[in-house]
Amino acid sequence: MPRPRPGVGTITIGKSRMRLFLGIILGGALTIGGAYVADKASGAQPMVNWDVVGKNVNSLTGMARDGWKKITG
After folding, report:
1. d(C-alpha 57, C-alpha 43), whole Å
2. How open is the CA angle 39-27-48, to the nearest 5 degrees?
3. How many folded domains does the chain comprise?
């Protein structure tokens, strides 16, 4: 006897995890984008020091590249 297929409204475990990760990434991007827009729109002192953010991102990407080179040989 064939197994019944999942119903139309069900979500499998893999899809649920993917939606979670996508939601986390999208939420982070919206938060950073909102802070950037708010800083550029206001004439006052910015909320975020974007020079420091840029240095931290460059450091993080460098560490990721070094780690990837170490893994792949």
Report:
1. 25
2. 25
3. 1
3-state secondary structure of 43: coil
- Is the residue at 7 inside a domain? no
3, amino acid identity? R
Given a contact cutoff of 8 angstroms between Cβ atoms, the answer to whether 59 and 66 are in contact is no
Instruction: Report the predicted TM-score, pTM, of the whole model to 2 decimal places.
Output: 0.53
Answer whether 3's CB lies under 8 Å from 11's CB.
Answer: no
* CA gap 18, 38 in Å, rounded: 30
pLDDT, one tens digit per residue, over 15-71 is 788 899 999 999 999 999 998 898 888 877 777 888 888 999 999 999 999 999 999
In a 3-state reduction of DSSP, which class is residue 42?
A: coil
Domain span including residue 64 = 13-72
